[in-house]
Write a structure and sequence with these properties.
homodimer; 251 residues; mainly alpha; Four Helix Bundle (Hemerythrin (Met), subunit A); 2 domains; 3-stranded antiparallel β-sheet; 3 strands; globular; DNA-binding
DNA sequence: TTTGCATTCTTTGTACACAAACGCATAATC
DNA sequence: GATTATGCGTTTGTGTACAAAGAATGCAAA
């Protein structure tokens, strides 16, 4: 029942090689991934004690992971009232998308100049995995990989502050998709991703930026940020006010 | 005895209820301000116990404040080796300035559209205080207010992710100025700030952006990022390799 | 039935104690 | 004499106990 995460029970202290070693990194990554894959719905309460129980660590570690997520606006940390998965409003969603367009444009231009052959190869590999995930029906993994693609592209641009900002924006975008995605859920982003890499590899900055902007348009068009009228949406809109957690189903 | 945190000895304002915000907010703000005003030099070690002693709180609070500062790349958190004030390299400085140009451009355009009369009035007040600080020789407060001006302008733009990013960039810029400012230290930024507000208030986006870009150029030109030859700079360059914290090596 | 208040109970906030890791210094060996 | 091994001291990392702040619930009164 409460032992789904057995592998984590043991103290994972392989810190010499620096392979995502510390415990709070692991906890952070797991919660982050759960949100990215939409296994944790917006508004879900994240109890420190419960998470500590699940991951087999004390509240200290959980608290640090939540703090980090809060700094990326992925969870909301309310004083004396605990943490919940953030529920971006329509206005917040618009702001995130505005910033993303700005950042993606800069990243694309920089990537054309700085991306190495190895990085482009890794990007292609990620797109293949993304495509495979969607084709075998694993939508959660697909969305996560799609986000990681944009993060990886930021790394290829070679600008550390942009990478940090992009991480935050990608996470929030995933939340927004979880909250506002319309019926048409055909995530064909991998095709656009591949074309984008082609343009970058060809050194065609203008074409690459154009493709990226269209890609942003497509993501945007899949959301219904304009309406927000149906009862379901109302529920989502007010979820940050609800006391009761959505009780995320454990896989 | 190695008292590395001498500069902080003075503000022992360990009031528990007086100031706004929680304790870790107060600690964060004080350290942040000390760095912004360059009372804490890059490379200075930030001992948890010493800071706890100074502020009259436990290491838990200090740790959280340092974690927050680390997330903004203002301090560097080395595992098992404590925190130091970050020492941006020339390359990191270039990346920060690239991002700042991008963000400031967007902020300026948005501010022309969204800034309210009240916000512009507050901005003017900040510029006046900045000018007064410089004119009475308080260079530290002047630099801090100059940074806060850019942060306030970001808030006037009305885009939350941009504000968050800008906060990180402004802090890092201050660090960079502390590390790389050339002999010509005439910070006449307040004049440019005032012209900028005029253009924004007039609704002249093109002029406002142009002024902002020139302002960025001026800040950039005051630094000697190209040379990095003096012994002081060499020291900064290798500070991340040094085991021993060279506290207060600033001349 | 509904509303206001008080008590209780759960959850978070803070401090502290203990354990582990790192750096430095000393010493021993080649 | 130089270099490496080892022990010690200091600093950080983690767990846990206790305190405080909300939230929920029950009771009483309108």
């Amino acid at each position: 029942m409460n032992e789904q995460l057995q592998p984590l029970k043991k103290p994972v202290r392989a810190n010499k090689a620096g392979r995502s070693g510390t415990q709070d990194d692991i906890v952070y990554a797991h919660i982050f991934e759960a949100i990215l894959e939409q296994r944790l719905a917006p508004g879900t309460k994240l109890s420190e004690e419960a998470l500590g129980e699940i991951f087999g660590v004390s509240r200290t570690i959980i608290r640090r992971a939540l703090s980090r997520l809060a700094h990326e606006s992925v969870v909301l940390l309310r004083p004396n009232r605990g943490a919940v998965v953030a529920s971006p409003s329509v206005e917040e969603a618009r702001q995130v998308f505005f910033s993303r367009r700005m950042v993606e444009r800069a990243i694309t231009e920089l990537a054309v100049q700085h991306a190495t052959a190895e990085q482009l190869s890794e990007l292609r590999q990620m797109v293949r995995e993304e495509r495979d995930s969607f084709s075998r029906g694993d939508r959660g993994a697909g969305i996560r990989l799609s986000g990681e693609f944009h993060l990886k592209l930021a790394e290829a641009a070679g600008n550390a502050p942009l990478v940090s900002f992009q991480r935050s924006l990608v996470s929030q975008t995933s939340l927004i998709i979880a909250q506002y995605e319309s019926g048409n859920r055909s995530h064909c982003s991998y095709d656009e991703h591949m074309q984008l890499i082609d343009a970058i590899e060809a050194g065609d900055a203008q074409q690459a930026v154009s493709l990226m902007m269209h890609h942003m348009d497509h993501i945007d068009s899949k959301l219904n940020l304009d309406e927000e009228s149906a009862s379901d949406d109302l529920h989502a809109v007010f979820s940050h006010l609800l006391k009761k957690p959505k009780a995320a189903a454990k896989g």
